[in-house]
Amino acid sequence: MTETDEVDRIWREGLKRLAPDTTPMVDAEALVDAGSRRSRARVTIAAAAILVVCSGAVAVVLTRHDPATVVRGIDRPPPVVVDLVDAPNGALTIAVPGKVSGHQRQPPQIVLRAGLVEFHIELRSTGHELRLEGVAGFAPVHGPPGVATRIVQLHPGIYRLYCMLPGHAEAGEQIFLDVR
Amino acid sequence: MPGDRRFDDFYAFDHPKLVAALRLTTGDDDTAREAVDEACARAWERLQRGDEIEVLAAWIRVVAINGARGGFRRRAVERRAQSRLAIRAIADVPESTASLAEALDVRAALSQLAGRQREIVVSFYFLDLSVETIARDLRIPEGTVKATLHRARRVLADALAERTNEPHEVQP
Fold it and tell me: Which residues of B touch A20 (CB under 8 A)?
């Protein structure tokens, strides 16, 4: 196989990997099934490695509700909850939770289940403006210090959570969410 | 109603992949779905009038690509503000870290291409259309399609080389 063939292969396989999911997220039977197994137990999956980058830090803690919850009066699979907290000194750190596809990878990646994902974002300092690329429902989060919540429906795919301020993402203030 | 069966086949086999292709070229769910829906509606109207459409899937594909391009233009200002094309992805393919890294490289390479170039790349690599078909659909010379594919290979090769620090040569 030539180098050109190899690049062609990567284009083909990469686009298949990047092609959006066109199937319904949850079918009616799944909703009924989820409703019949209502339970609100929360299971913390993990909280692990820390990546210190640029001038700041956001701690990401992943928590999962299991197995079902009620959102806006409709039984649905429970949301995945991602808590983000910036560092007290204004530095942006990303603490990557347990399901990480390779701690050594830069930028880091988190694997999440598709469906509702709830982001709890606590900004303890100004100087960051977080955005989830390509998701209209995720309004950019920025100072002043405080707590914000964003609930979005994520289809399977790769999403980039990053700081919009010039130079920050390039300096490493970003993380990829691998939603499956 | 002539064409009913063909629409059934289109929705069963071609619709999901065409929507996915247009999402890749535009980076926008709404634009992709609206473009395909609009193209289907136009096809339906033509068939109801008694007009003939030789190959329904191809006709809808061309109209949808043109429609999506219009949507892309309308959103160009917003997209420039975002500075980068947003592209979603599926993850239902079992993968290794290496394949995920390659997908991210493809994502980065695709974002470096202009709208028409993305249409060509997605048509060739994702929709598996021939150079001849792409040229006819987009009404451009075959040489332009080949040149664009060559540039796309080079862009991706550069992205791969940057990540791995190993040069990837692309033959002309």
Answer: 19-20, 23-24, 29, 32, 88-90
